[in-house]
Each structure stands twice: as C-alpha cells, then as structure tokens.
Amino acid sequence: MKLYPRSDRRAAGILVAGVAALTAIALAGCTSAVSGGAGPISTPVRGGQIVVAQPGDFQPNVILGGRTGNYPWIGNVFQPLTYIDPESGTPEPVLAKDWTFADDGMSVTFTLQDDVTFHTGRPMTADDVKFSFMKTTEADSGSQVGFIAKQFSSIDVASPTSLTVTFSQRLSEATIFDFLEQTYIVDQETYAGLADGSQVVGTGPYKWGTYRPGTSITLERFDGYWNAAAGGQYADTIEIDKLADSTAQLSALRSNGANIAYNLGLTDAKGFESQPQYTTIDAGGTIYPFGMDVTKAPFDNPKVRQAIAYAIDRDRINDQVFAGGGTVTDLFWGADAPGVTDDQVNHYAYDPEKAKQLVEEAGATGAEVPITVVALPAIQSEYEIIANNLTAIGLAPTAVSVDETTFNSLQNQANLGPAFLLLHSQVGLGPSTLISSLPSLRANNPSHFDSPEYQDLRNNLTSAASDEENEKALGALTEYILEQAWVVPIVQAPYKVVSSTDVQGIGVSKRGNLLLNDAYISE
Predict the structure, then answer these.
(1) Which of 141, 205, 337, 432 shows its CA 20 to 30 Å from the CA of 39?
(2) CA quadruple 227, 228, 229, 231: dihedral, nearest 10
(3) Long-range contacts, 504-507 (Cβ 8 Å, 24+)
(4) What are the pLDDT digits (tens) for 42-65?
(5) Which CATH number fits domain 285-494: 1.10.10.10, 3.40.30.10, 3.10.105.10, 3.30.1360.180?
(6) CA count, 13 A, side-chain hemisphere, 92
(7) CATH pick for 6-195+502-521 out of 3.30.70.3270, 1.10.540.10, 3.90.76.10, 3.30.70.1070
(8) Which range, of 40-49, 50-59, 291-300, 317-326, averages the lowest pLDDT?
C-alpha cells in the first residue's frame, strides 16, 4: 500500500518520540492507494498532463477546512507537517523532519525541513507554521480541527526551523497528528488571496496555474520544489475538471477525456471493478447518521431513539444506496478501534419487531416524525428506505427537504428540527478528534444532547495518557453513546477513485486527498 509519494519521505529512519502510542489509533475507513492498477508497473515517464474529473466545487477560500471539492488537488499544492500512514497508523515526516513530545505530554517541539520554499520563492519558516495553526481557530477558516488549536496555550518560535507548541490541557498524540494531517501550511504573505483564488501559494510539487471558478484548475510543475532531488513531479500539468453530473464523469473517463474520476458514485464505480483497464481506489469517506433532537417529542424518550436504531435497515441502505461498498456499523469510528467490542459494532441489529414494541411502550405510536433531508441523491435515497422502516414500526415520517447551503447553516446553528439525516466527511480521524469535530458528537450538537456523564466520558478519552486508559475510555464512551442513541450511525461509505491503468503512481492520504507527485502516464 502506498500512503503518499515516497519521494516526499525525506527523513526515512528518523526515530520519533511518542510514535509507539500512535500504533493504536483507530483507523476508521482507512484509505488505500495503488501504484499502477491491474497491469505491470512500468518505468516512470516524465511529461504530459493528468486530468481528474470531480463532482464537487473548488473552494480555495477554505484551504484549512476539510472540503471534498479540494481533495483532488490540495495535497499537490499544499503540504502539512506530517501525514499518517493509513496502514500502520504512524506519522510520517513531510514539512517537519522531527518532533518530540514532552514527558508530561503538555507540549511538542517540531524541527522543520530547512530548505522549504513557497511557490513565490520565499523560504517557509516556523512563523508560517504558527500562522497556519492559529488561522484554524478562526471561524471563517472552515477548519474541522480548529478546536484543537484553541487548546494551544502558546506557540513559541525558537528559530526559523524550530517551534514548540504548549497545550492548556493534556492532548493525546493521536489528536495532535489528526490536527497536523489536515492543517496545510499556508503562506502568510499571500493568505488573503485565497478568498477569491487569486493567490494560492503552497510548498508542494505543483503550483496553482489557470483557475476557472466552478469549471477547472490547472496545476503546473513547480521547478523550485524543495524536495525535487528525491524524484517525482513526472506530469507537466494536472488539470482538475468539475463535472457535477455523474454521466459526464463516466463519459470523460471512458473517452479518455479524464484519466481519473474522483468521488464517483459507488454504483457507477462498481461497474469498473471488473474492467482490467481501470483501477478502483478507496479514498477517505463519509459517515451517514440519523440524528434526533432529544428536547422534542417523541425523541425526548430514549426508548423511541433506541427503537429507531433497531428499525433502520442498514444492510438494505448499504446495498441499494451505496452499492454494497460501505461499512455497516453502529459506530463513528472503526470496528478495530482499541476498546471497542464486537457487540458494540453491531449493537442495534435490524429488528423491526423489537423497534415496534419499544415505540408502543413509549406511547409514541402514530407520532409524527419530520425529517430534515438535504437535497443530495444519496441522502434522498436513504430517506425513502428509512421512511418505510419508521412507518413499519408505527411512526409517521415526513421529509423536510432543504438545499445544501441551508442545511449547512441549520447544522451550524444546531437547528435541524426534530429529526435529520446527516453526512460527515471525516472518515479517517481518530475517536479523540471525532468527538469534538463531528457535528453529531460535539458539545453544541443539533440533537441538543448533553449530560455531565457525557462530558466526563469525553474528557477521559481526550486526556488518556496510556494505551490502557485510551481503551477503557473509548469502550465506556462508545457504550454510553449507544445507550443514549441521540444519533444513530448507519453506514460509512468511502469516496471512490477510478483511474485508467495508463496512470500509475497515484497516492492517497488517510483523509482521502489525491497525491500525484509520483503519478505518471505510462507509455
């Protein structure tokens, strides 16, 4: 398995303090990548253009936020301090070449690569790293992990290549590396240009070229790349085209108008799995839960919430909506997360009779259940199945359809109504991060669920100082979430990347970003 371009692993063999603790990270829905698909791997060829078709829009204004529309290009223009290997769970150096956690777990010191330059030619320094970290705390950055930086009590720059981050409370190493994974280092001198895409300046092997908002981006090989001596940068240019219609993506791929289709619908992607001229890759993914506002009847009664958990036919949803390509689970994290039991993974097996009995015991038979549904095909298809499931147990569901912008606004305001179908593109983050980054689980969640016990269990996980403490804390928190059932995970579905086998050397990060430094078009 290839995590990201091997040519960017400059500090191979570095002994990093605290890495051992990372081997126990939960890698829910971890990504994979291939180096050439079904055919034999050829000698890398320099030149040409790689074309990627994607459905989402480009959002250079939220470089520090996890936006699916940025995943195909962002990791080629920008770089973080570290990436996490999806297979081993260990952090690998990128812009940082070394790091050391203090014995008390209250700080970490980074040593940076000493010859990194931005695409403007200006040297990157520890001040840029500090700037990037602090920007994540601002609401308009869109960062899903800015809450972690808010727990940095100080960032002290000792030299252009060294800085120490001190925490206001103990943070697990897993949480820190989740933060680093999706915090790209930006150029503070041109940061304002990200707002309209006029200046998009990173440190990666490709630089921002022609930008046609809502249409395409062309990335160009950066000749001043700091790690060029390690190899890679085979393609002259990388073109990212927005093709919102799945039919257009398929047509582009089959006609060689595109070499790679990113986030292709699971049903469409499945059709390529048996075709030897294509390779299908899992990349990151989305968690799809059903949420309920516990302050509104009938969801103020936990029996009704548990009834819905038993009533939803997850296997049918996975098969019909996600072409069987997702993972059916009752959890927000992976089944292999240390401390999680098999009983917890499948706690709410499909049992409509039990669900109907719980609804009757709660006196909720016939209760109206308005469900807020965002106008996305997968969510609307989910709703049709869930509506039938809830009707079968004596409830009366109705859809309240809203557009994507309205839905995001309502979610941020924690005002989605009595019930709602959610989607969280955060597969790949660890549990200690997810409990605060996921709208479903964070303090101001749209279910309005909170309790002293929940806060204690969350704190126990984030402050765990050993593998044993982490396992115990995660097991207890998982059990509590299942028991209270204010939000019901349904399936975790990966993004699908379909590539022509003419393109080899594709890399994918744990979060699902395409990394094309080593990608080339074979002869």
Answers:
(1) 205
(2) 110
(3) 504/35, 504/36, 504/37, 504/41, 504/42, 504/44, 505/5, 505/35, 505/36, 505/44, 505/234, 506/33, 506/34, 506/35, 506/260, 506/281, 507/2, 507/3, 507/4, 507/5, 507/33
(4) 788 899 999 999 988 898 998 998
(5) 3.10.105.10
(6) 20
(7) 3.90.76.10
(8) 40-49
Q: How far apart are CA 104 and CA 308, in angstroms?
A: 44
Looking at residue 41, its pLDDT comes to 60
Q: Is the peptide bond before 213 cis (omega within 30 degrees of 0)?
A: no
Can you tell me the mean pLDDT for 155-176? 94
Question: How much of the chain, in percent, has pLDDT values that exceed 70?
Answer: 92
Phi first, then psi: give them for residue 129, nearest 5 degrees: -65, -45
Residue the block writes with tokens 């059932």: 485
Do residues 379 and 310 lie in contact, with contact meaning Cβ atoms separated by under 8 Å? no
Half-sphere exposure of 256 (CA within 13 A, CB side): 6
What is the chain's Cα-based Rg?
Answer: 23
- Name the CA dihedral angle for 436, 446, 60, 79, rounded to a multiple of 10 degrees: 10
Comparing C-alpha atoms, which of 163, 170, 160, 150 is closest to residue 18?
170
- DSSP for 152-181? EEEEEEEETTEEEEEESS---HHHHHHHHH
Q: Where are the domains of the chain?
A: 6-195+502-521, 285-494
Between 426 and 8, where is the model more confident?
Answer: 426
Is the C-alpha dihedral spanning 488, 489, 491, 497 positive or negative?
Answer: positive
**Segment 480-522, tens digit of pLDDT:** 999 999 999 999 998 889 999 999 999 999 888 999 999 999 8
Q: Regarding predicted confidence, which is higher, 87 or 79?
A: 79
Half-sphere exposure of residue 479: CA atoms within 13 angstroms, side-chain side: 12
The CB-based long-range contact list for 193-199 (8 Å cut-off, 24+ gap) reads: 194/60, 194/61, 194/63, 195/61, 196/61, 197/58, 197/60, 197/61
Contact 425, 378 (CB under 8 A): no
